[in-house]
Amino acid sequence: MTVTLADVAAHAQVSPATVSRVLNGNYPVAAATRERVLRAVDELDYVVNGPASALAAATSDLAGILVNDIADPFFGIMASAIQAEIGGTGGRAGCERLAVVCNTGGSPEQELKYLTLLQRQRAAAVVLTGGAVTDAPHAAAVAAKLRKLTESGTRVVLCGRPPVADTGAVTLTFDNLGGARAVTDHLVGLGHRRIGCIAGPMERTTTRHRLEGHRLALAAAGIEEDARWTVHGRFDRRSGYEGALELLRRDPSLTAVVAANDSVALGACAALRDSGLRIPDDISVTGFDDLPCSIDAVPALTTMRLPLADAGARAGRLAMGREDAPPGKTASVQGELMVRGSTGAPRE
């Protein structure tokens, strides 16, 4: 059954004229009333159709950038580049928007909450960064929110996420699978056959794709993976430290460790050193992302470089409509293997 403007008015306990004024956005309406109307629009899943669609167009100067953890350099680098484009420093004067960084803390509920708030504010653009949650109900809820946003005129860009079909969002997806496979191929090429893996959170698409790439490389080399060789944790240094100790406890004969990202890799390196192992003489370690700290580690970290700043800047231009969407509204962003001192041939 189609929801009408009158239905929204009844639900919000206001007149149809007030609903029109709120959606039009160019007539004074009390803040409490406006909030009530926008909540009714969201709860009833109301979509303006036909000639009135212009009333629902996103015309505010607000743009939202969703990140999992602003303290993580992975997200900080991308958010900074996106904000520069949206805020004007990376683009043309007079085309600026107020870019608000929304830190979800990795919470699926908080992610949905921010999307709802940005929809109510009639945001001009929304950029979601980093991997998505694989939980099917949450994925469906996010897809519905993205669809609402694009239908109301908001430009939606996914940066570092898999595409979400039938939402109108533009996607810049990182080749996590191919990158992880290249990292493990590098270790196999050096002669490693017993390779541990400190993977990220099991519910994240980034973890799933990087772990799949790692396993594809092992299978291609004829290496039968031991279940003891994989542990999961968060994308942080502490998880790397604890994960490396757990891997050593499970199988002290490992000659290499692939980590979910650079922060995890640096934590792993600390744990291995504290356990009396030399890198790479006794054990090799790899990261992923090529954060600025990776080249300053001792030894410097072998890792898969993702062009985070470039991808973020492109996402910002797409969000501002200053760059045409790629064919099919999806582009794959490739990484580059950076071979440094943390990897070498396995010990005898």
From TrEMBL:
GO terms for molecular function: DNA-binding transcription factor activity; transcription cis-regulatory region binding. Residues 320-348 are annotated as: Disordered. Keywords: DNA-binding, Transcription, Transcription regulation. Residues 3-57 form the HTH lacI-type domain. PROSITE patterns: HTH_LACI_1 (PS00356), HTH_LACI_2 (PS50932). This is LacI family transcriptional regulator. It comes from the Bacteria. SUPFAM superfamilies: lambda repressor-like DNA-binding domains, Periplasmic binding protein-like I. InterPro entries: HTH_LacI, LacI/GalR-like_sensor, Lambda_DNA-bd_dom_sf, Peripla_BP_I. SMART domains: HTH_LACI.
